Amino acid sequence: MSGDSNQAIFVAGHRGMVGSAIARRLTSLGYRNLITATHAELDLTQQADVEAFFRTRRIDQVYLAAAKVGGIKANRDYPAEFIYENLMVEANVIHSAHQANVDKLLFLGSSCIYPRLAEQPMAETALLTGTLESTNEPYAVAKIAGIKLCESYNRQYGRDYRSVMPTNLYGPHDNYHPENSHVIPALLRRFHEAVSADASEVVIWGSGTPMREFLHVDDMAAASVYVMGLDTPTYAANTQSMLSHINVGTGVDCTIRELAETVAKVTGYRGRLVFDATKPDGTPRKLMDVSRLGALGWTSTIGLEDGLRDSYQWFLDNQDRYRA
Question: Its Enzyme Commission number (predicted)?
Fold first, then answer.
């Protein structure tokens, strides 16, 4: 990342998986003036509080990593919370940044913004070309709104608000809730508990045939800082306009069955895998077209098995907080 290492950088969502990784990345690059706020200190869904936060601080850049996230079950059970909280957070932060004359902001979206049956791999141009996956539509709509917020402030006010769309993320500080987590932390916890209990089988939601792409959060943080650091002419030339968003991923996917087999290997589980096809599969395939980011000079470096081992070690080191 180019620029003044003394710049004041607000990392919204610094305690989450992505926000904490971005904070680590910035710190490792020598940025010393990171601004953070816990939920108790600042509720990002409250407009007046967010406006006051920006008004009373000098902020040069914003990384908007704060979001309500969850797996298929959580999205199915709490659709109102997923659309409301994400809309409020992004609207409040983006608008308050503009009011405070913050010119640079990076919004982190999600690959679920693309249509359920989008051509694979999914290019940035697939946005709004078809019907969304029903299991996470409210969350996806909120994330699409975030992209359009950034685009609108760029068009109307000449801001430099950029958006990156990560594929499925995993890594340290992930959510390991037994019901409301994403597939990798859910599987890591389930297989770990199966090893501890010497269970003969592990039941996995769905048929095992959907294909997914996974990116370690440290790679996502590196990509985010890289994109933020691109000069405006380079960014604009490679995104077709200042209104575009950029996919971030590995460009490689695997089936859920293959993922489960790799998790079993990492955790040392040797029992039987059972796939419950009565549970929803979600989108058949989600692979990102990352050629645009590749043209900008960035590619991922952490392979899936290595990333899973890192994630599992973090879980082992922090599992006390997940015993419930």
Answer: 1.1.1.271
Question: Per residue in 213-244, pLDDT tens?
Answer: 999 999 999 999 999 999 876 777 666 555 57
DSSP state for residue 126 in the 8-state scheme:
G
Buried b (16+ CB within 10 A) or exposed e, 21-41: bbbbbbeeeebeebbbbeeee
The answer to the question of whether 50 is labelled as a binding residue is no
CB 83 within 8 A of CB 139: yes
Residue 324 — pLDDT band, cuts 50, 70, 90? Answer: very low
Would you say 68 is a known binding-site residue? no
**Hey, is 78 helix, strand or coil?**
coil
Note the pLDDT tens digit of each residue in 301-318: 999 999 999 999 999 999
**Count of beta carbons in the 10 Å neighbourhood of residue 116:** 19
pLDDT at 275: 97
**Residue 17 assigned ligand-binding role:** yes
d(C-alpha 105, C-alpha 35), whole Å: 14
Q: Which residues are catalytic?
A: 139
Residue whose C-alpha is closest to residue 75's, from 183, 169, 165, 213 = 183
Reported pTM: 0.92
The domain 9-174+213-252+286-303: what is its CATH number? 3.40.50.720
Cβ-based neighbour number of residue 323 at 10 Å: 5
Instruction: Report domain extents, the chain.
Output: 9-174+213-252+286-303
Helix (H) or strand (E) holding 259: helix 256-267
Q: What is the 3-class SS of 141-202, one letter each residue?
A: HHHHHHHHHHHHHHHHHCCEEEEEEECEEECCCCCCCCCCCCHHHHHHHHHHHHHHHCCCEE
